[in-house]
Design a protein that fits this description.
The protein has about 375 residues and is α/β, with parallel strands linked by helices. The chain has 17 helices and 17 strands. The longest helix has 19 residues.
């Protein structure tokens, strides 16, 4: 396949939030006044610069992430989508996802965002319980979360939502009840994330001093297992470690990441993996919003890093991403993308031991991690890779 025809996913990063959640280590920034016009112009300019060097590739999906992209003015979203349609080959069923939080200001924008061209919304609910919402530093109430889900269901053909589990003091029975209520509201796609303590966050300081105590590993595993059971009752299947969907409702954008396809990232701190001149390169934009905008205004882009990936890095990344998926890694695709056979990339003895332990399988040209293996993927991967 030629470079100009290599299918592409596009990620657009909006870095601003109403407040900083104490568990979050994402590239998110709080400003008293969000410079909407400046960042609209900068995003459009960087998109044009990126498209000029990529060529008119087929675009599979667009994802507005953050930060909190539902704080973007809908006009900004509409203009960026208009630009993308002019710059790339667009299918009739292009998936356009936007992340939103269920505060009143953001919920009030959902209809306008739909009219701008968004056809899939991912709502950061995190919990339907008042006490955990307050502990997590969320700016919405449980009632607002429910209202946002109900409004989104009326406006968008596809709706996803996020929940955080393994929270302090969480019991298995309470989690099942909360999950059932959420799935009853919108049963299409669910992203589930275990609460972890990330360096540099407020929760890290609290955890160090005993202000936060997370559930032990056994309870966390039980909460994870309960999620799959409850999701299955609503017809949602686990297609990736943290994601459940009805058949056909999987996130096409995230599948592009996990299947290790090309994706371009624009906006502050955005990453990309792109085929350029026959090489796979990793790209990164400047992380801080204002310096990124300065760079774009001077040069047309905010790129700070573009590195050709060595074969060993491609192998590791492709296995790390692909083994997160229930479908696993296809031998044919692995060879085409990395230039190595899958068998040559995997330590044979390590595979035999991992297979005997029930962590991996190799069948019909696919290397797959079992549910038990996916739980242990971070430890399993260094053991497997040759």
């Amino acid at each position: 396949m030629t470079q100009t025809l290599q299918p592409l996913a596009l990620y657009i990063h909006w870095p601003f939030c109403l407040s900083r959640c104490p568990y979050c280590d994402f590239n998110a920034h709080v400003r008293e006044v969000i410079p909407q016009q400046r960042f609209r112009h900068a995003l459009r300019r960087e998109l044009a610069w990126e498209a000029a060097r990529l060529g008119r590739r087929p675009l599979r999906s667009i994802f507005f992430g953050g930060g909190t992209p539902s704080l973007m003015q809908p006009e900004t979203v509409a203009l960026l989508l208009e630009d993308a349609r002019a710059l790339f080959e667009i299918p009739n069923d292009l998936e356009v996802t936007l992340e939103a939080n269920p505060t009143s200001i953001e919920t009030s924008r959902l209809a306008a965002l739909r009219d701008a061209g968004v056809n899939r919304v991912s709502i950061g609910i995190q919990s339907l319980e008042p006490e955990p919402l307050a502990r997590l530093g969320r700016q919405h109430s449980a009632a607002q979360a429910i209202a946002a889900l109900e409004i989104a269901r009326e406006l968008f053909p596809r709706v996803s939502f996020d929940l955080i589990y393994a929270r302090p003091g969480q019991s298995l029975a309470a989690w099942r009840s909360e999950l059932r209520r959420a799935l009853d509201l919108v049963a299409d796609h669910l992203s589930l994330y275990q609460l972890t303590i990330e360096p540099g966050t407020k929760f890290e300081a609290l955890h160090r001093t005993g202000g936060i105590v997370l559930p032990d590993e056994d309870l966390a595993a039980a909460l994870y297992d309960a999620t799959a059971e409850e999701a299955a009752r609503f017809g949602l299947l686990p297609y990736e470690i943290s994601n459940y969907a009805k058949p056909g409702a999987e996130s096409r954008h995230n599948l592009q990441y996990w299947r290790y396809g090309d994706y371009a990232g624009i906006g502050p701190g955005a990453h990309g993996r792109l085929t350029l001149d026959g090489r796979l390169v990793a790209t990164r934009r400047h992380r801080a919003p204002e310096p990124w905008a300065d760079r774009v205004e001077r040069t047309g882009h905010g790129m700070t890093e573009e590195i050709a990936l060595a074969t060993e890095e491609v192998v590791r990344e492709m296995l790390l991403m692909g083994l997160r998926l229930t479908e696993g890694v296809a031998e044919e695709r692995f060879l085409a993308r990395s230039g190595r056979t899958l068998a040559s990339a995997i330590d044979a003895d390590a595979f035999r031991h991992a297979a005997a332990a029930g962590y991996v399988t190799w069948h019909d040209g696919r290397l797959t991690a079992t549910p038990e293996g996916r739980r242990r993927l971070d430890a399993l991967l260094p053991y497997l890779v040759n």
